Amino acid sequence: MGSTWKVLMALLLTVALTCNAILLLANLRLTSENHGLSKEIIKLNGELSNLKRQGEELKSQIEKLLEVNETLNQEKTSLLRKIENLTGTVGKLTRQVEDLKRNKTVRVVETLKPEKVDVTLSRKDITFNQRIQVNVRISPSKAQVNLTAKLIYPTWKEKELIFKEGGKGLYTSPITVTTMDPKGTYRVIVKVQYFNGSLEKELVFKVHEPLVSDFPYPFTNNTLVVIGYFGDHGVKGWKSATIDGVAGAKVAEKVSKHGEMPNVLFDTDITTCEKGVVYLNDTSHNLIAVGCHWVNTVSFYYVCQQIELVPVYPDNEEHNPLVFPQWLYIKSTGEKVAKWRDVEYGKSDYGLIMVLKQRKRYIMVLWTYTGLATDACSEILKNIDKASIYGWNLNGDAVIVAWRDKNGNSKIDLDEIKTTPYKWEK
């Protein structure tokens, strides 16, 4: 009985332990499943938060799009209103024009179509840096026109011209041909457009190499006025006189009234002289040399060392520039004029004004026997606008200047100056 009880107790204990083990395993499995479910719940909560945030952003974008759509609708309404107004205005103007056509009133002629159109040029022959003007005159002055024009160069390059209204039906457009442009024939094509019609006209002008009569236009920019140094210098050791400086100042002042004020300097500033030879150190400026070749080394450089460039030069029996000149030699005719033997100081004198081209720049030389002729040459250039009044013919690339005192005052009076032009066909 005792052993049976022990067996029974052992069996009960075994059953109890087995049940506990089963319950423990069940609890463990349930705990594991609950843990996995918690992780899924956390993941789902995260995704739900993301969807909520995206929903808020989408809602904000939709609200903005609605605002933009409202603005576009307002602008559309405004544009439609403007189009409606313009359509009404166009219709009104169209009816007015049709009424004017039917009635054939004077107003149609005055406001829409000119009766007369004159197209002209202020000049037909100019030199470099000289301005020419296109003039278009409309009559009646109230006529409505549209002007266009173009300048055609000898090289066929084209340039658009702009017109400025000057009042009373006059329209103008200035043209300036620079020293960088070619010489030759230029064409201007002017087109006048008006109601129900148009007019086209071609004008022609020429650009020539400068003559003395074209002063100061070739020298209105990048120019030096050169006078002789006041001390002994040059190939003969001569020096300039006060009259040379005064003459240079007159010339510079005249140039400044039409363009840039040129610098006035001494010949020694841009030349050197060694063993009877002058070296010119400036190669870029336009030059105006005042004084004879023994007073001004720039004059010596051109009339004695660059004879192939000049139309007239001083000469003597020995053809020696270091011997005083006896006359001026004209290349184009072979003449010997303005002879030294006819000069009487204080009573008569001769001079020379000439202009020449050296590559892309221009040179003017005022050569004279004495200072009185230097003064006469500068007075011609100073008063060049009055050339026709005093009978000065300056239409040459070289002009011989003759002065003879008529009233005995030994001073230059403009009516005492005579000129003889020469053209050199190179």
Could you walk me through the main structural features you see in this protein, from its secondary elements to its overall organization?
Helix content is 35%, strand content 30%. By secondary structure, it is α+β, with helices and mostly antiparallel strands. It has two domains: 113-207, Sandwich (Immunoglobulin-like); 212-422, no CATH class. The strands form five sheets. The chain has a seven-stranded mixed β-sheet with strand order 11-10-14-19-18-20-21, sandwiched between helices. Helix 3 links the parallel strand 10 (223-227) and strand 11. Helix 3 runs parallel beside helix 5 (371-382). The radius of gyration is 49 Å and the shape is elongated. Residues 104-110 have low confidence and may be disordered.
Topology:
Elements: H1 2-103, H2 106-112, E1 116-121, E2 125-126, E3 131-139, E4 145-152, E5 158-161, E6 164-167, E7 170-176, E8 184-194, E9 197-207, E10 223-227, H3 242-256, E11 263-266, E12 271-274, E13 277-280, E14 286-290, H4 297-305, E15 312-315, E16 327-330, E17 336-337, E18 348-358, E19 361-368, H5 371-382, H6 387-390, E20 398-404, E21 417-422
Parallel strand pairs: 2-9, 10-11, 10-14, 14-19
Antiparallel strand pairs: 1-3, 3-7, 4-5, 4-8, 6-7, 8-9, 12-13, 15-16, 16-17, 18-19, 18-20, 20-21
Helix pairs in contact: 3-5
